[in-house]
Amino acid sequence: MHTEVDLAQVTAEAAARPAPVRIALDLEADVDVRGSRAHLERMVADLVANAVRHAASQVTIRVTADGLDVLDYGPGIPANSRELVFRRFHRLDEARARDVGGSALGLAIATLHGGTLAVRDTPRGAHLSFRMTPPAERSGRADLRGSAAS
Questions:
Q1: Which long-range contacts link 46-52 to residues 24+ away (Cβ below 8 Å)?
Q2: Which CATH number fits domain 3-134: 3.30.565.10, 3.40.50.720, 3.40.50.10090, 3.90.1440.10?
Q3: pTM, whole model, 2 decimals?
């Protein structure tokens, strides 16, 4: 069932779980996503858990009208391996292989909600971002940004 989901609230809930590193939040209010709350909770929780697993000291999470950014300040993801992280059960190398392979559900969830999930350039660590496609470019999809789009 698709409803209006407060992306900042979902993110705050995911970040509230106990973590071995500091989690810094920068959450813009009124960033509503139209979609499945359960799916969005899963995607955000997976992004946060993965960042916490690989962070050396801190995870920074931002929610803006453009979407969600998760930075882990860990070993990072080499540029030539960035597309591989979205393959099911893929592991890059020992530096990021502390647990079993992932399910790659985040990319599917982002796409289902009319957005994209990508690895961005960063001077240190990994930076994953969920971007919502602007309504005019979605060709028939429901508005994902709700009040934030106006």
A1: 46/102, 46/103, 46/105, 46/106, 47/14, 47/106, 47/128, 47/130, 48/11, 48/14, 48/15, 48/17, 48/23, 49/14, 49/17, 50/102, 50/128, 51/126, 51/128, 52/19, 52/20, 52/21, 52/23
A2: 3.30.565.10
A3: 0.78
